Amino acid sequence: MRINKAVITAAGRGVRLYPVADTVQKSMLPVVDRDGLTKPIVQIIAEEALDSGIEEICVVCAPGDEERYRQQLGLLKEDLLAAYEGVEWAKEQAGRLDNLIRRMCFAVQQEPLGYGHAVYCAKDFVGDESFLLLLGDHLYISDLADQRCAQQLIHLAESEECSVAAVQSTREHLVGHYGTLSGKRVPDAPGVYQIERILEKPSLSQAELELQTPGLRVGHYLCFFGMHVLSHRIFGLLDEMASEADRMNGEYQLTPALQELAKREKYLALEVAGTRYDTGAKFGLLQTQVALGTAGKDRNALLTTLIELLAEAGMHPAPRAGD
Fold first, then answer.
1. What is the CB neighbour count within 10 angstroms for residue 235?
2. Model pTM greater than 0.70?
3. Domain residue spans in the chain?
4. pLDDT digit string, tens, across residues 185-205
5. Which end of the chain is more exposed for a tag (fewer CB within 10 A), N or C?
6. What is the signed CA dihedral for 93, 96, 97, 100, rounded to 10 degrees?
């Protein structure tokens, strides 16, 4: 089993980032990466995949966005070469952009019919292979110097020849934000679980009743990390979810198909050594930028700036409501 393909779902209009994402695709918003270079979010996500051994990438996008992505990424490359002619870092960055453009294709989600439908739009691209699935608004920082988060996931999927969900031990008050699962630890495999039950954004009472996983710290649950390696058989399950009887408000989601996958075949969860950052959450872009900065070459400069800002803020209390 070899994972060669990745799917990035980026068709959402970014309601949580309104109004900016109403005119600019949220995955094209700029962030300074660990190497100190400013990049669109989609490039950082794609490099997570490419640096993990992926050879082809399909971006699931909204109607009309394919041309915008191609144009904007192409302009970034051209502008770099024109503005920094002969500069080594600019040539290297332009080369990475060129490599990304060559390896990237697009699948259009014509209607916003849910996350499951967005994944289904990549069916023709995936064919009969297993694939890496990434969210278009999540960035990942590995705790391991020599292995990306996606690499950790792919390594387990290839060695066990099965689907694998990346998970993170998450405090109980946050379970309502994520797909959450329970499972049994796999003997002699630290951080690996056989998935038993999955619920999408459960209430805390649901989690307490149905999603307790032995061995986790008290008040913690296994929540999705924002990346999966999935068998192509997920598309057959999504076909079943798409029937009118299984739809909710005209949409169909991925989680019920994942639950069915866990019933039918081997499906593992891996506690990834790393952290996920949701750029679409409130202050998510800020948190993501700080995390990338403190994990990269500009760490000291960023920490100095943050300390100065916090000290300054402490000297000037925030105005009270009505002032």
1. 18
2. yes
3. 5-314
4. 999 999 999 999 999 999 999
5. C
6. -170
